């Protein structure tokens, strides 16, 4: 899928979205299933500022701990951010901050599972699989359509 952030690779098992990643090169178009058509439609709405919540079945593959982290990420409201420490605390173990950061970085479904909403201590933009510039764009985009929130970076 072409987007304002470049090419997005959408993956599905036919029932759920299993992956969204960024690509630096064109890939051959494949015949999408219904869930990917809905995903593309909702992503287009997100990028235009009309969609602030996604209503798609997700099935990311990962360990039990990764699943817990990714589930918690989905609770972060649109246009808001939390720190890695806050995420670790929400998961019940502040000492797990490094493991939380690693799981966050291995999120297989970018944007829909909003790992971009997690920032470093001192409100610093840190690591993002799609590149820091994409993380910054996503956060600024969400702040733009959620003006009651303050810019944190």
Topology:
Layout (H helix, E strand, L loop, with lengths): L1 E2 L2 E7 L4 E7 L10 H15 L15 H10 L8 E2 H7 L6 H9 L12 E2 L12 H13 L9
Parallel strand pairs: 4-5
Antiparallel strand pairs: 1-2, 2-3
Helix pairs in contact: 3-4
Could you explain how this protein is built, in words?
- By secondary structure, this protein is of the alpha+beta class.
- The protein folds into 2 domains: 2-48, no CATH class; 64-144, Orthogonal Bundle (Arc Repressor Mutant, subunit A).
- The chain contains 5 helices and 5 strands.
- The strands form 2 sheets. A 3-stranded antiparallel sheet has the order 1-2-3, covered by helices on one side. It has a two-stranded parallel sheet with strand order 4-5.
- Strand 1 and strand 2 form a beta hairpin.
- Helix 3 (84-90) crosses helix 4 (97-105).
- CATH architecture of the largest domain, by name, is Orthogonal Bundle
Sheet-strand content, in percent, reads 5-15%
The N- to C-terminal Cα distance equals: 29 Å
Q: Give the fraction of residues assigned to helices.
A: 25-40%
Based on Cα principal axes, name the global outline. globular
Q: Please give the count of helices.
A: 5
Total count of strands: 5
Which CATH first-tier class of the largest domain would you pick?
A: Mainly Alpha
Low-pLDDT runs: none
Gyration radius from CA atoms, angstroms: 15 Å
Q: Largest sheet, described in full?
A: 3 strands, antiparallel
- Helix and strand run: EEEHHEHHEH
Classified in CATH, the superfamily of the largest domain is Winged helix-like DNA-binding domain superfamily/Winged helix DNA-binding domain
């Amino acid at each position: 899928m072409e987007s304002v952030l470049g090419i997005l690779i959408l993956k599905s098992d036919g029932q759920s979205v299993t992956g969204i990643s960024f690509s630096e090169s064109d890939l051959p178009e494949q015949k999408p299933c219904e869930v990917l058509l809905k995903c593309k439609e909702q992503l287009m709405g997100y990028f235009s500022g009309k969609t602030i919540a996604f209503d798609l079945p997700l099935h990311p593959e990962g360990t039990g701990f990764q699943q817990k982290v990714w589930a918690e990420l989905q609770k972060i409201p649109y246009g808001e951010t939390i720190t890695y420490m806050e995420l670790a605390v929400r998961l019940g173990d502040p000492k797990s901050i490094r493991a939380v950061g690693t799981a966050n970085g291995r999120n297989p479904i970018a944007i829909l599972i909003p790992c971009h909403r997690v920032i470093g201590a001192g409100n610093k933009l840190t690591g993002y699989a799609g590149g820091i510039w994409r993380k910054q764009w996503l956060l600024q985009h969400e702040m733009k359509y959620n003006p009651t929130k303050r810019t944190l970076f």
